[in-house]
Design brief:
131 residues; alpha/beta; 5 strands; 5 helices; single chain; Rossmann fold; five-stranded parallel beta sheet
Length: 131
């Protein structure tokens, strides 16, 4: 296949992931040429400055690190990097999935099934980017 036709990797930024989860995700992402880890931050406040300086397509945001309004957090992350796709990561993903639209996130994935759900989400994201 002609590499000129292949899209650039999806640039992923992690926010609020614990060290163990972030390490596992970094290993997972480094093994997939369709994705590239471009940044990690402990919380949304720390991420804002980094996002304004780092080309990023997709944020994985751990809900447990949110302090205050999810809507305000999502809005501030998007102001730092317009066009950003934000996916919430939560242990109890079903409760968050129903709230995701009102919070302004693009989706929610389960922390217990993060690899499978990230792969599924990536296929959808990848298809949209090449159309």
């Amino acid at each position: 296949m002609d590499s000129a036709l292949e899209p650039e990797p999806v640039r992923v930024f992690l926010i609020g992931m614990g060290q163990k989860v972030a390490g596992a995700l970094a290993r997972y992402l480094s093994g997939d040429p369709r994705m590239a880890l471009v940044g990690v931050a402990r919380n949304p406040v720390a991420a804002q400055n980094q996002l304004s300086l780092t080309p990023t397509d997709l944020v994985l945001l751990e809900w447990s690190v949110l302090n205050g309004s999810p809507e305000d957090t999502v809005r501030s992350l998007r102001s730092a990097r317009p066009g950003l796709v934000i996916i919430g990561v939560a242990a109890d993903s079903e409760a968050y999935r129903s709230a995701a639209p009102r919070w302004g996130v693009d989706g929610v994935i389960s922390s217990s099934r993060i690899a499978e759900e990230l792969e599924s989400m990536h296929r959808s994201f990848h298809t949209e980017r090449i159309q």
